[in-house]
Amino acid sequence: MHIWILRTDASSSNEAVHLQQRLRSLSTELVTLRNRLHVQGGQPATVKGGGGPVPPLAPVSTAPQPAVPPRSAHNVPAPIGSVTQQQRPQAPSSGSSSNLEDLIHLHGPLTEDAVMKCLQARFQASNFYTNVGPILLCVNPYKEVGNPLTLSSTRGIALSPQLNKVVQEAVRQQSETGYPQAIILSGTSGSGKSHVSMLLLRQLFAVAGGGPETDAFKHLAAAFTVLRSLGSAKTMTNSESSRIYGDTRQDTIEDSNRFQAWKNCLGILGIPFLDVVRVLAAVLLLGNVQFMDGKGLEVDVKGEAELNAVAGLLGVSGGALFRGLTSRTHNARGQLVKSVCDANMSNMTRDCLAKALYCRTVATIVRRANSLKRLGSTLGTLSSDSNESVHNQAEVTSQHASTIGGSTNAGSKSMAALNNAIRHATDGFIGILDMFGFEEPKPSQLEHLCINLCAETMQHFYNTHIFKSSIESCRDEGINCEVEVDYVDNVPCIDLVSSLRTGLLSMLDVECSIRGTAESYVSKIKVQHKNNSRLFDPKPIDPRLFCIQHFAGKVVYDATDFLDTNKDVIQDDLVAVFYKHSCNFGFATHLFGSELKALYSVETVPRGVSFRISPTSHTDLLNGDEPVSTLTQDFHTRLDNLLRTLVHARPHFVRCICSNSQEAANRFERGIVVRQIRSLQVLETVNLMAGGYPHRMRFKAFNMRYRCLAPFAKLNRTEEKVTDDCNLILQYVMDSIGKQQSLVSTSYAMGKRHIFLSEGIRQQLEKLRSETRQKAATLIQCCWRGWHCRYRMSAIRREKTVNQPPVSRTAIGGTRPRPQPIAGTPPPDPNEKCDAKIIQQTCNLFGLDLERPPPVPPSRSYTVTGNTKLGYPQTRVMKMTYPEDTTTGDDGPVLLKGDTVLVVGASHRRGHLIVEHKHCTLHVPFQFLELKQSVNI
Fold this sequence. Notes:
Pfam families: Myosin_head (PF00063). It is built from 29 helices and 27 strands.
């Protein structure tokens, strides 16, 4: 056996921990290989910490293997455990790996190198999406570099079957259960999350939202186009990073087209273009304004023309804006004191104004976009425990190890009633969550600490949902899982940053309240967490720097601007400038509307109070020495609200991976990919999905979903024998799998309240269920369509016989039907039938030739009704539909009963009139028409 050790560079994080995990994984692989080569009758090897001996695999056979009778919850023999584990060939070729759509089907030992080689083979074959059971991995090929990452930009891009499957599964679960669904994208910055989210959103609209022609799609596409331009920036690792930071300059012909599209999208959202442009121009010009210390008390300004231009754009006077930037009001023991700021303070106030204008403009656009399409209801605020109870009542498949099913006692019935009420109160939605990706820029600021905390939180949510819940459920119900999944728990890092009293962010809030310094803050956190292995000093040591070991690597943070950034305040002297009586630009006044309303609620303005630069859900208007809510507190509040929403939703995970660090198209760097495989714990996920029990279902829910796989007559269908029905269903499923000679290892276990399923058998169950339902649907449709056709045939024949139109005389040669003799009268004498002499005299009288038929008289240009002669044209009404038989396939016009038509003359056909209707001319029998009262005489 060859052991490959992949080495990373010196900056790779936690090398010793990774080597420990590799050694533990390799030891497990050695035991697996030894068991596979072990002769029958020998003693199986034992995995350290695995919870017992690992049974040797049975030889490959098409017959189903007998179930192993394990210990039951009630000491009653019940079949559980390992079923049909097939031997797998070693060392797959690159060709077979490129066609492998699910990593749980990897042949041979499941190692980090095998996973990486499979991803590389698929990447080189342009297969960028790979499943790990229900979880999807996306390797970014960087083929869309420069894409504006909007809904409109994804038009024409073919959606992969894997992404379509994620959307279809989310829609299916939402329609079947009514519970909210969340498609969660995670990965480092630049891994392609935003691009994938746009593809998913477009597909979601195509499947369940009415398509791209709906108003909701157009409004959302316009919002993304507008916000993408205002909320994207180029960073060291991502040229299209989703945040407000830095700038991106483009000088291309396409840039003008994008600007025009951006302008049009503002119009779709109902936001005046000039209002936004005036604010953005003012923000840009503020960067050219510089305050310097003057000779006297006041400061001098460099760029006075730009300052006046800013004042003009914002609709205020230049003097008022200058005073708002260079003076401040203080409240000293009830006395208001106005002081002049120095150059440094004035420049900070200028930056605060630029931030406030920009952030509030973006927030206004977001509010406008949200107001166009609001959710129908508000989500409930349930705890994670109650959320599990909600999931327990659903009778559908458990995805990602969520508990499903219901108990039968009175307590669970009352809980079911409560959960049903909650289910209807929480109107189910399908959300796509594109969160911040992990970053390690140099130097890292407070914003990056918040971003990485968000990434840590999403990783913890993934660990809890995938690993922790599965392992704890197996342990609680006495299930002995053969695979030991040793995942990295990042709770210590989250506690380090966000703990209530001793967390770094809480200590930062305290330091801001006492007006401390960056050095004192760093010193205090190092003393508080001196025994925490996640916090350490960087090299070289600096009094303002500290380092944190995150789940994806080490990051060095510079606390120089932590306090100022966290305060995030703007003084009322500057806000008062935009009051409506002194500002003629209504949009600027609207940006500070809530603050101005609170500020002018009293007579004294300004009075030395502070506001938040970035808008919040509530107005922060507090006196000088009282603590104002900080940036990190607001971030915590928003993150907590997001987590409360996710707790009540069923997640579908999409894990995005960078293929290289240069954003080069179709380049696969093994070191970069391996580092992300470790941080995202892909190998641990593959091990759990391939050999563990990641899914569990209540017995009743399992029977309700998969009872179609067993003969109906053999099922007990009683709550007392629900486990017997489960075993019967699984027995037939294992028979079907044995006949198909599947190479997938499948196993299940019966617990106290749940049946535990491996990913392999879950896929087989879903496949067989889908095939059975398809066959049943085909049979039902066949029977119904046959019956319907037979039923309709007799009815059609009856209708055709009853409604058959009279045969016209032209159809029988144009001769008048011979009158029938009266019954009982003798036939006339042959000599009395015809007198040739009388006939000859009559012909001579009228000038007719006896040898020729008489000529057809010319058509009259009128008709006679009663004693009135009516000329053409005439207005008549259809007495019945013509033609009557419309089933002949003729595409000609049809005149319906009651239609008003125009008769323009007599037809050359005997007994017909020429009719015009809707620019069409038809020859209609005379008896089909009746004269309308108002006619042209």
